[in-house]
Amino acid sequence: MTINPHLQGRSYPAGDVYSVGRESIREFARAVKAGHPAHFDVAAARELGHADLVAPPTYAIIVAQRADARLINDPESGIDFSRVVHAEQKFTHHRPITAGDELVAELHVDTVRAMGGGAMITTRAEISTVDGDAVATTVSAILVRGEGQ
Amino acid sequence: MNLAELTVGQDIGSRRLEISRADLVKYAGASGDFNPIHWNERFAREVDLPGVIAHGMFTMGSAVQLVTDWAGDPAAVVSYGTRFTKPVPVADLDGAPGAVVEVSGTIGALDAAAGTARIDLNVTLDGQKVLVKAQATVRVA
User: Phi-psi category of B18—alpha, beta or left, where left has phi over 0 and alpha has psi -120 to 50?
Assistant: First the structure.
């Protein structure tokens, strides 16, 4: 299977809304062994000036990977998910994610570069609230390994 | 914490990250990333990997706790990025850690105008870097 070179420049409009809940923040924090009380205790988060529980710095990956899935599952993309390796990741937070947020992500395919039998694909998810306030920008580079890579 | 009290090269501490197969299953559930290379040995080998490997995002997400704890507020981390250069294979040892990753951090740069410090993380497995250019920018009051 080969990667469709015309993917570059493609974008996918905001999809389903992701509702950030307290238990989801707590579960993610436990999963990354984060112990900061602002992830678990609403009073501790409020003491720091936040409206509710604060998400760990990489929590936005949940929303970003849901957006990436729209590309990976696009039959036109030619991407075999079992051969995808994460090569690079960056988060830029425009404001903290807190419990109660209703988030959407618009996905942009910034670059597609052929590498051996595979390809390096850079995607950017612009994450915002349903009301359009910018929350985070995430950039992911994924390597789709060719056979024998 | 005051920016003027910080110096480039300053150590912010270190932590030892013990990873078991159960941790990867928990991370898969919490993140929604169910790629079988992170929990199915047979599948991982079929796609030419050395075995089950940790999610890059598990390693990245766990390593940054050193920064969060140092900053005192998780929301102070305004940006965070890394390259994933080597996989972290996690052996199946009946609940005992199947991999141990060492994390340490130093102040890489200070930006007085922006009020931020850049923390450079050194994240290694058996002495070899698994994250390269792992850098977090932290707002310092």
Answer: beta
CATH code, B3-139:
3.10.129.10
The one-letter amino acid code at A90 reads: K
Q: CB contact, 8 Å: B39 with chain A? A: no
Global pTM? 0.95
Note whether residue A2 is domain-resident: no
* Cβ separation B74–A39 shorter than 8 A: yes
Shortest CA distance from A146: residue in chain B: B47
Distance CA A88, CA B134 (A): 10
**Interchain pair A58, B57: CB under 8 A:** yes
Q: pLDDT digits over A98-128, tens only?
A: 999 999 999 999 999 988 888 999 999 999 9
The answer to whether the beta carbons of residues B62 and B97 sit under 8 Å apart is: no
Interface predicted TM-score (ipTM) of this complex, two decimals: 0.96
Q: What is the dihedral of CA B61, B63, B68, B70, to 10 degrees?
A: 180
Structurally, how many domains does chain A consist of? 1
How close does chain A come to B13, measured CA to CA in Å?
16
Q: Nearest Cβ partner of B32 from A62, A139, A148?
A: A62
Nearest to A89 among B33, B60, B65 (CB): B60
Would you call A78 exposed, middle or buried from its count of C-beta atoms within 10 A (0-12, 13-18, 19+)? middle
CA angle, corner B96, sides to A32 and B41, nearest 5?
80
Q: What is the pLDDT of residues A57-92, one digit of tens each?
A: 999 999 999 999 999 888 888 888 878 889 999 999
Domain coordinates of chain B in residue numbers?
A: 3-139
Q: Which two tokens stand for residue B93?
A: 């040892």
